[in-house]
Design brief:
The complex is a heterodimer. Chain A is α/β, with parallel strands linked by helices. In chain A, 32% of the residues lie in helices and 15% in strands. In chain A, α1 crosses α2, α3 runs antiparallel to α7 and α4 packs across α6. The two termini of chain A are 26 Å apart. Chain B has a single domain, classed as Rossmann fold, CATH 3.40.50.150. Chain B is built from seven helices and eight strands. Chain B is globular and about 50 Å long. Classes of the chains: A alpha/beta, B alpha/beta.
């Protein structure tokens, strides 16, 4: 391998797209060809290609980790943690963030065109978290990155980081897993099923074949998002933010309008989500998470999953996160310890529930900066 | 990167670090801000891990590049397989556990050797304070008052030796400190402010 910086400049920078040269062999048994990956890179890959950090996004996230979102115009979803001088310092590290397989921001998913030039819709194969990582490994191959300095992810991004460490153990030095789990708990599967049912109950869903019909299951997707959004917050943060306060009115209307601020807020969250997310993608991605269980192939023994790993691990949970509670991270930490892997674990105190990993938690910044180095 | 040297350590920690075999696997239970861990890694080439209850301390350790798990010595040692470590260290922590006997038992289950350091409640100054002052002693080594002290199980060197004997453990080494300096083992229960023991399980 040449000892200089990348030769193919077209592969590096913001808003990139590439087609994987190899078909993806998926966990479900099918093969997906011509997989397109939409991604961004930040910073410069050093000569020995040893400073790459892969950031994995959560359910509704995307590759715009630290650059303005093209649809919403908002700053990148983790621009507080990724950038020059930030905890993941792009002055020193080469950061890659790719839209996951099955999503809808440019990477191949159910809204993409199949070989017959029609959208896949439900013909798209059901995928797993490991399939998402597989696609990202294909991208790293293209970028000439054999071994990552670190992989970092929160929530579903943390599951990808764990999956990467478990199934591609030679490809990463440091693994940072924030507010995640090694196996999806039943309560989380239950909430995700509510979301999927809301989408599929919307007559505009049309068995998934709504593309090009002028109607999309926006109402169903909005309800799915509203339900999920509640699980991302804590009771305390909701009480603080909204209490029982009324929305732009002095008294109750005795109707089904959004009287309360919390109702109005959730409706807004639901409605704005439909403008940037594909309902079928939501089905596929949440199903991949529901299927996630790292121990499946190891008879339920998590320590065996990581036997012989050479990576260092850092796990973080938040005391107000009831969706991916501390015990999930603690389980992983103890399993890694039993496997002899260097591991750190900390439960941070933050009031914002599961969403804490995206918000202002200075202690988290210190931990990320210290661990990623 | 950690800036820890043996010379800059608290006396009991320096004593422990100086007697840990280089390259050993070590668990520091109640590792605080990671000072001992950092010294063990930097100066003794150890594979050093920590267990610490305070999240701010854990965050500090992780930021220093140390491997530390947030947990409670009273409940979390059970997660570790037998003899996972060459040494487990309990420095200034024994007297804060709910069941020191059980914590020590776990310590000697998960590690081949255990270092234990604790303030000696039978030091003459403590005795004098109680005998003549009639109040629970507040000394340099025991600075908290009875109602806000984390030390819920005060013990003396003789108490400790009695427990070791009762449990059938073996004392492999013992060191005594007074005002941060080594002191003679003779009448340590009266003259030593602080004791460090190296134990082996039954």
């Amino acid at each position: 391998m040449e000892a200089s910086a990348p030769t193919n400049d077209g592969l590096f920078g913001l808003n990139r797209r590439t087609i994987l040269p190899e078909p993806l062999m998926l966990d479900g048994g099918t093969v997906l060809d011509q997989v397109e990956i939409a991604y961004e890179t930040y910073g410069t890959l050093n000569a020995d290609r040893s400073n790459a950090v892969l950031v994995c996004h959560a359910t509704s996230g995307d590759q715009f980790v630290a650059s303005r979102h093209p649809i919403t115009g908002k700053p990148g979803w983790w621009s507080r943690s990724v950038g020059p001088g930030k905890p993941i310092d792009t002055d020193r590290h080469f950061v890659v963030c790719a839209n996951v397989l099955g999503s809808c921001m440019g990477t191949t998913g159910p809204a993409s065109l199949a070989s017959d030039s029609q959208p896949y819709a439900l013909r798209f194969p059901v995928i797993t978290i490991r399939d998402m990582v597989r696609a990202q490994m294909g991208l790293l191959d293209l970028l000439g990155i054999e071994r990552l300095h670190a992989v970092v992810g929160g929530s579903m991004g943390g599951m990808q980081a764990l999956s990467l460490a478990a199934f591609w153990p030679g490809r990463v030095d440091r693994v940072m897993v924030i507010a995640a789990t090694a196996a999806m708990p039943a309560q989380n599967i239950a909430f995700q099923e509510v979301g999927r049912q809301a989408i599929m109950a919307d007559p505009n869903w049309q068995g998934g074949n709504y593309y090009g019909t002028g109607a999309a299951p926006d109402a169903g997707l909005a309800v799915a998002r509203m339900a999920a959004h509640i699980t991302y917050l804590s009771e305390e943060s909701m009480h603080e933010k909204f209490g029982r306060r009324l929305q732009d009115r002095a008294s109750k209307t005795f109707g089904f309008d959004a009287d309360f601020q919390v109702e109005s807020y959730l409706r807004h969250q639901g409605a704005s989500f439909t403008g940037r997310f594909d309902a079928n993608s939501y089905l596929y991605i949440t199903k991949a998470m529901s299927y996630f269980d790292l121990t499946e192939e190891h008879g339920g023994r998590l320590a065996d999953v990581f036997a012989g790993t050479k990576s260092r691990f850092c796990l973080v949970s938040f005391d107000s996160d009831w969706l991916y509670p501390t015990r999930e991270s603690r389980k992983i930490a103890h399993a890694l310890n039993a496997a002899g892997a260097p591991v750190s674990f900390v439960e941070l105190s933050a009031p914002y529930g599961h969403d804490s990993f995206l918000l202002d938690v200075p202690e988290l910044d210190r931990v990320i900066a210290g661990f990623v180095g | 990167m950690n800036g820890a040297t043996l010379a800059s350590l608290r006396p009991d920690l320096a004593l422990i670090a100086g007697h840990v075999r280089p390259g050993a696997r070590v668990l520091d239970i109640g590792c605080g801000d990671g000072t001992l861990l950092a010294a063990l890694e930097a100066e003794r080439g150890c594979d050093a891990r920590g267990l610490e209850i305070d999240p701010a301390n854990v965050a500090h350790c992780v930021a220093r590049g140390l491997s530390v798990i947030q947990g409670d010595a009273d409940t979390d040692l059970g997660y570790y397989p037998d003899k996972s470590f060459d040494y487990a260290i309990l420095s200034q922590t024994l007297q804060t556990t709910r069941r020191p006997d059980l914590a020590l038992g776990e310590l000697l289950r998960i590690a081949a050797h255990g270092f234990v350091s604790f303030p000696n409640f039978a030091h003459w100054r403590v005795r004098a304070s109680l005998a003549f002052g009639g109040r629970m002693p507040v000394t340099k080594l025991l600075p908290e008052r009875w109602y806000d002290t984390p030390n819920i199980h005060h013990l003396t060197i003789d108490d400790f030796r009695a427990l070791v004997k009762e449990q059938g453990w073996t004392i492999e080494g013992q060191w005594f400190l007074n005002r941060g300096r080594p002191t003679r083992p003779a009448n340590a229960n009266l003259w030593a402010e602080h004791a460090v023991f190296l134990l082996r399980g039954g």
